[in-house]
Amino acid sequence: MCIFYTQFWIYGKPYNRWISAFIYPITRIIWAINTATIIWMCITGNGGFVNKFLSWKVFIPLSRLTYSVYLTHVWIVWYYWGSRRDIIDLNNFSFLTLFSFIIIMCFLFATIFSLLFESPFISLLKYLMNYILRNEKPKDDSNEVPLNINE
């Protein structure tokens, strides 16, 4: 429902503002509730095959690159459209090649960005956390009872 609620207007059905005023805000709430339910079920161990699929080892490198892709994809798209000097060709093959080019370039630049900035910063944070936890001062144990008379 959340994805296909505009299907009627896409196929030329008349626009009804009352239905649109009801459906548009409700679909966002339903989408948020469904996503929260899936996350909650996976956290509590009731996710079943969805949890197994989302926890698949193949997704680990991709999940680490998603934030870098988010940060770098705007620059790639901006450079592509800013350097273009010809008319946009609106056929399926050109959109497929453009999509493939942008996806490949985004993940390439995200990998470089992650190796240059994100990975060293994560390593620094791990080092600092280990250093802080190792040098943490013990609690004041002055109220402890000595084990023998000489202490």
Describe this structure in words.
This protein has 151 residues and is mainly alpha-helical. The chain contains five helices and no strands. Helix 4 crosses helix 5. The radius of gyration is 27 Å and the shape is flat. The chain has two domains: 56 residues; 73 residues. Helix content is 70%, strand content 0%.
Shape: flat
Q: Roughly what percent helix? A: 55-70%
Largest sheet: none
Going by helix content, strand content and strand pairing, the class is mainly alpha
Strand content: under 5%
- What is the CA-based Rg, rounded? 27 Å
- Termini gap: 74 Å
Which series of helices and strands comes N to C? HHHHH
* Total beta-strand segments: 0
> Roughly what is the average pLDDT, rounded to an integer?
82
Q: Tally the helices.
A: 5
Write the layout of secondary structure elements.
Elements lengths: L6 H4 L6 H28 L4 H6 L4 H24 L9 H43 L17
